[in-house]
């Protein structure tokens, strides 16, 4: 296995995912941007800095698309060392009373936020198992820890990710694969900024709940992800780090 670290970041074309991809590129990793749009453009911008990067279309709710993305990553770089399961639905979701969330909307969120992470993880596992090593970082949310209302489908989906992180850590430990999670608070990402309704209703509430009373930015999340992907956390697995400025304490 080559010494170069190869990282897949789903949803890496913008927002938190792009900030994560930029950090890994700065640290010398080869980066695979997997997204439904903008992946090639984001990879080109990263490549222009001298880093190794490719952009690949990936619909994480489609297992075939996940497998094709992983095949492209292996074709380009020959290995996959780290997967950051970042892609998911959030910023476009409307604050809605539990009883008014339609079955179709429930299914849409679960298909992407839960099954999507499962499908991407399943796609990378053969390569990681063959290497005898790998790191998976699942992006969760602070919402299931705090019980945020009016986004029950989203909160449930991220609660499932927290549970999956623990279970996968148990299942994959013998293969040399570590599985951890990061749970950001309400973050002023590109997607959130494009949906003023979310900002109006959640920004002030989030700031008041924090010990560090300012907006959370995508850059505030990347250090935790980089740490969990590094040898500095080599004896950690099954953990979810809450990064929310002190809004929630374990």
TrEMBL record:
Keywords, alphabetical: Oxidoreductase
InterPro entries membership: NAD(P)-bd_dom_sf, Sc_DH/Rdtase_CS, SDR_fam
Database matches in PROSITE patterns: ADH_SHORT (PS00061)
GO terms of molecular function: 1-phenylethanol dehydrogenase activity
EC number of the protein: 1.1.1.311
Alphabetical list of SUPFAM superfamilies matching this protein: NAD(P)-binding Rossmann-fold domains
Oxidoreductase keyword on record: yes
Keyword hit for Nucleus: no
Pfam family, one: adh_short_C2
Family membership noted in the UniProt record: Belongs to the short-chain dehydrogenases/reductases (SDR) family.
NCBIfam families per UniProt: PRK07231.1
Annotated protein name in UniProt: (S)-1-Phenylethanol dehydrogenase
Organism name: Roseibium album
């Amino acid at each position: 296995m080559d010494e170069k670290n190869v990282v897949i970041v789903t949803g890496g074309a913008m927002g938190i995912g792009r900030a994560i991809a930029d950090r890994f590129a700065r640290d010398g990793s080869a980066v695979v941007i997997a997204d439904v749009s903008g992946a090639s453009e984001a990879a080109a911008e990263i490549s222009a800095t001298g880093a190794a990067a490719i952009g690949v279309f990936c619909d994480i709710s489609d297992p075939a698309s996940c497998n094709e993305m992983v095949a492209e990553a292996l074709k380009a770089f020959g290995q996959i060392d780290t997967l950051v399961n970042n892609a998911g639905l959030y910023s476009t979701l409307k604050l809605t009373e539990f009883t008014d969330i339609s079955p179709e909307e429930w299914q849409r969120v679960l298909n992407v936020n839960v099954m999507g992470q499962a499908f991407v993880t399943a796609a990378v596992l053969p390569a990681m198992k063959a290497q005898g090593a790998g790191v998976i970082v699942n992006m969760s949310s602070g919402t299931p820890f705090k019980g945020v209302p009016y986004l029950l489908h989203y909160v449930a989906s991220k609660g499932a990710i927290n549970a999956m992180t623990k279970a996968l850590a148990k299942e994959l430990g013998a293969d040399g694969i570590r599985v951890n999670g990061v749970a950001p608070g309400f973050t002023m990402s590109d997607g959130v900024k494009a949906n003023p309704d979310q900002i109006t209703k959640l920004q002030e509430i989030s700031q008041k709940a924090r010990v560090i009373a300012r907006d959370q930015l995508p850059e505030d999340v990347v250090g935790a992800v980089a740490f969990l992907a590094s040898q500095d956390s080599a004896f950690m697995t099954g953990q979810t780090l809450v990064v929310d400025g002190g809004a929630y304490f374990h």
